[in-house]
């Protein structure tokens, strides 16, 4: 049976979403011992919400005979966080006025230290403590989903920068004058390597080169459709993943010059197609890398090894691991 005494401290990971807030008590090896969730809304004040979360967690621990001092620290992942102030600032999905003193309120109710991170940074820490980046001191995590997020670990430290805004790599320009981005500029990586970026690439290939592609008739095209079509040999889908790989390879060659990583780690819906874009990515990376760096396979490209459903909670818990 697991020893939940303070000699084997566990971390409470909390993932705050607009609808539900999930929590998990995570052991030192990443095993989840207790998990649950409460609705994020229906609490008058932010402090009421944290109090309700505290009651729920304590009640679940107690039902399993786990002492409350098994929680050595808390880590939370949330939208719009400022890790240095410990506050959530301007999160439109949360029903209370900003700023929300998340770290302070968690610490006050649970009586242990608490730290908070944005989702991509938390995912990077999750990989470092529990996933594909274990044992690495220098890596760049790219989350390829609705947008493109990133977390940079350099000399074993997660980079935060001023206001916690370091490493917005999704908004580095990879095609000068390219596709218009929601940030108001053109050619950002996000417009090519996010879900909608990949869909835009497929639409372009269908229109220009492959009008008879099986994807042409799909109205709400998704990266999953493009993945499945590529597996069946559809030329527009294959061209899409090749182009996506080339873009990512060029981008990673630039990023290598920022922090000289040992590896790039890929997570998110688009990253599920990793086997389909990795070869084009590695070729473009080697072609574009500054000569002072060693090429692949010395610098590795690795898909996330965390289970999709638990990544947010493990990332949140990893954020708290830094405190013990
Ligand atoms: Zn942008």
Helix content: 25-40%
- Which architecture of the largest domain per CATH? 2-Layer Sandwich
The helix/strand order is EEEHEEEHEHEEEHHHHEHEH
Class per helix and strand makeup: alpha/beta
Number of strands: 12
The CATH H-level homologous superfamily of the largest domain: ATPase, nucleotide binding domain
Structural shape: globular
CATH class descriptor name of the largest domain: Alpha Beta
| N-C termini distance | 22 Å
Please mark out the parts with pLDDT under 50 across 5 or more consecutive residues, or reply none. Answer: 1-7
- pLDDT average, as an integer? 93
User: What composes the largest sheet?
Assistant: 5 strands, mixed
Could you name the CATH topology of the largest domain?
Answer: Nucleotidyltransferase, domain 5
Protein architecture, described:
The chain has helices spanning about 45-65, 100-110, 120-130, 190-195, 195-210, 225-230, 235-260, 275-290, 310-320; strands spanning about 10-15, 20-25, 30-40, 70-75, 80, 85-90, 115, 140-145, 150-155, 155-160, 265, 300-305. Strands 3-2-1-4-7 form a 5-stranded mixed beta sheet. A 5-stranded mixed beta sheet has the order 10-9-8-11-12, with helices on both faces. The protein has about 325 residues and is an alpha/beta fold. The chain folds into 2 domains: about 10-125 and about 310-320, Nucleotidyltransferase, domain 5 (2-Layer Sandwich); about 135-305, Nucleotidyltransferase, domain 5. Bound molecules: zinc ion (ZN).
């Amino acid at each position: 049976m697991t020893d939940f005494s303070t000699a084997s401290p566990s971390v409470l990971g909390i993932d705050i979403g607009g609808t539900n807030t999930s929590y998990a008590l995570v052991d030192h090896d990443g095993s989840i011992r207790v998990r649950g969730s409460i609705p994020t809304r229906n609490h008058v004040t932010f402090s009421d919400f944290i109090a309700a979360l505290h009651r729920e967690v304590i009640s679940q621990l107690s039902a399993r005979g786990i002492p409350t001092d098994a929680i050595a620290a808390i880590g939370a992942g949330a939208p719009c966080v400022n890790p240095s102030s410990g506050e959530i600032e301007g999160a439109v999905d949360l029903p209370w006025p900003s700023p929300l003193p998340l770290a302070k309120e968690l610490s006050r109710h649970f009586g242990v230290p608490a730290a908070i991170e944005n989702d991509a940074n938390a995912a990077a820490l999750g990989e470092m403590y529990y996933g594909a980046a274990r044992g690495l001191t220098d890596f760049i995590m790219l989350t390829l989903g609705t947008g493109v997020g990133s977390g940079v670990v350099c000399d074993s430290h997660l980079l935060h920068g001023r206001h916690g805004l370091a490493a917005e790599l999704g908004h580095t320009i990879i095609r000068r004058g390219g596709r218009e981005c929601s940030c108001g500029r053109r050619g950002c990586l996000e417009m090519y390597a996010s879900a909608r970026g990949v869909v835009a690439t497929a639409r372009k290939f269908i229109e220009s080169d492959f009008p008879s592609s099986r994807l042409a008739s799909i109205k709400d095209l998704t990266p999953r459709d493009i993945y499945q079509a590529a597996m069946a040999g559809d030329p527009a889908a294959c061209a899409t993943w090749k182009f996506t790989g080339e873009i990512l390879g060029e981008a990673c060659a630039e990023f290598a010059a920022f922090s000289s990583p040992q590896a790039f780690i890929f997570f998110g819906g688009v990253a599920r197609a990793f086997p389909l874009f990795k070869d084009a990515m590695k070729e473009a990376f080697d072609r574009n890398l500054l000569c002072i760096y060693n090429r692949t396979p010395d610098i590795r490209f690795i898909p996330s090894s965390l289970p999709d459903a638990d990544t947010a909670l493990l990332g949140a818990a990893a954020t708290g691991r830094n405190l013990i």
